[in-house]
């Protein structure tokens, strides 16, 4: 009997330990209820947006996720100590968070450092670790420095990860927040609307203290300045997603088990360049890093006709045939920005007709940070085709074929106006067969076929008399 009791106690303890290990570490939200949350975005208060988005985020968390809530500025105006632990981190009822947030007023100041200190010290007192997520629409207004608070706590060995979601902040207001998130082993997310806030909170709740620490960093630049970029890592040669991150003009971190991967990086600002895929390898017990430059290069595209600037459309294609750029030239040199690489440029001359209205400039080499010139000169001449009966202009259909290939290249009607009869055709140099067929009843059935030779830069006129 004694053995049975002992066995049950051991099994019970083991089961309890296993369950505790299975449960994720708590998430502790620090919520901004300062007076500025009454400000509006897209016609709605930031207070209302934040409450709805946070409620949705919380409802999507696992059922065994413990969630705590700290709020500041919700009870008094001008009080830097108006900070309260509204929901304990042992809470497992999502409704408690939702109810607290939606019933909260927004009144006071923004004591970021003191709020972070309260949240972090609670972990120390409870001897637990947690993911802390701070949501704020403002900068410190109580003379504290949240970055210093977080850095000091890390030095003391308190186990936490801090993410910060800045809601409607200006770029110059984010420096201290980015510093704090970096010191806390987390990420600063910039949200300008409800969708951005939702994306930031979702990613923050997925990147928890329970995750393996990042062992591979990614930094994206353009013209030596950091740019925000979205990064997805997949197993090499597959679509199997391993990790995602966002750089937010800083280093983004992912955890990659030893192996080879394809890193897909897409810039989110300051460039028309498309994303790039880079082969990377993660080595056991080593920190990896990849700097991605979106400097690319530029193509100065010049399109001419008989040596003069000419309006054309263009498509820049990779060697695999993917269109990555292009523009309409309007008769002027056009700058097209693309990734470094080798390209073919397909040009279509507008207005002109013939068999040489399209041209491909092949194997244009674009180097990072450089501008390469690519040009083509089309050649054309003018054919004026008119129809008369005595001194009267005759409406007729004009059809033009390339003499050698028999391919139709142009066609129109002359009508009976001096502005269209004779009708002007801009054609590539060559020999053409022209057929003219009268339209009106008084000349019905009358046709004439003849051959013309069009030369570069010259005009040939042919008037048919019925």
From TrEMBL:
Annotated InterPro entries: VWF_A, vWFA_dom_sf
Domain of life of the native organism: Bacteria
Gene3D superfamilies named among the record's database cross-references: von Willebrand factor, type A domain
SUPFAM superfamilies per UniProt: vWA-like (SSF53300)
Domain VWFA: 26-205
Keywords of the record: Signal
Record protein name field: Ca-activated chloride channel family protein
Organism listed in the record: Ichthyenterobacterium magnum
Species classification: Bacteria, Pseudomonadati, Bacteroidota, Flavobacteriia, Flavobacteriales
């Amino acid at each position: 009997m004694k053995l049975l009791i002992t066995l049950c106690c051991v099994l019970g303890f083991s089961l309890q330990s296993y369950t505790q290990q299975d449960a994720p570490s708590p998430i502790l939200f620090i919520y901004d209820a300062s007076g500025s949350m009454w400000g509006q975005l897209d016609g709605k208060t930031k207070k209302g947006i934040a409450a709805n988005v946070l409620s949705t985020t919380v409802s999507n968390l696992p059922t065994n996720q413990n969630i705590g809530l700290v709020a500041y500025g919700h009870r008094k105006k001008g009080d830097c100590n108006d900070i309260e632990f509204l929901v304990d981190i042992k809470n497992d009822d999502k409704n408690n968070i939702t109810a607290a947030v939606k019933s909260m007023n927004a009144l006071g100041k923004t004591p970021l450092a003191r709020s972070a200190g309260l949240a972090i010290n609670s972990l120390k007192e409870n001897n637990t670790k947690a993911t802390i997520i701070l949501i704020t629409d403002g900068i410190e207004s109580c003379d504290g420095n949240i970055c210093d608070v977080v850095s000091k706590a890390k030095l003391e060995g308190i186990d936490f990860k801090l993410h910060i979601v800045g809601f409607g902040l200006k770029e110059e207001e984010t420096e201290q927040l980015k510093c704090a998130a970096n010191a806390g082993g987390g990420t600063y997310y910039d949200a300008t609307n409800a969708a951005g806030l939702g994306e930031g909170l979702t990613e923050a709740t997925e990147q928890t203290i329970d995750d393996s620490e990042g062992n591979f960093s990614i930094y994206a630049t353009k013209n030596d300045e950091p740019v925000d970029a979205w990064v997805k890592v997949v197993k090499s040669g597959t679509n199997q997603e391993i990790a995602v991150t966002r750089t937010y003009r800083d280093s983004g971190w992912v955890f990659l088990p030893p192996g080879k991967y394809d890193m897909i990086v897409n810039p989110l600002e300051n460039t028309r360049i498309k994303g790039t895929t880079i082969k990377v390898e993660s080595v056991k017990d080593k920190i990896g890093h990849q700097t991605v430059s979106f400097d690319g290069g530029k193509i100065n595209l010049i399109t001419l006709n008989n040596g003069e600037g000419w309006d054309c459309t263009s498509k820049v294609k990779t060697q695999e045939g993917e269109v990555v750029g292009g523009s309409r030239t309007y008769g002027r040199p056009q700058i097209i920005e693309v990734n470094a690489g080798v390209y073919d440029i397909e040009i279509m001359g507008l207005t002109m007709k013939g068999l040489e209205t399209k041209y491909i400039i092949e194997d244009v080499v674009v180097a990072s940070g450089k501008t390469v010139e690519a040009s083509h000169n089309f050649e054309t001449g003018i054919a004026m085709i008119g129809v008369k009966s005595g001194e009267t202009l005759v409406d007729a259909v004009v059809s033009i074929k390339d003499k050698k290939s028999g391919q139709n290249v142009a066609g129109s009607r002359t009508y009976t106006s001096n502005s269209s009869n004779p009708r002007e055709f801009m054609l590539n140099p060559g020999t053409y067969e022209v057929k003219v067929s009268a339209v009106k009843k008084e000349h019905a059935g009358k046709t004439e076929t003849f051959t013309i030779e069009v030369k570069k830069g010259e005009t040939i006129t042919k008037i048919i008399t019925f």
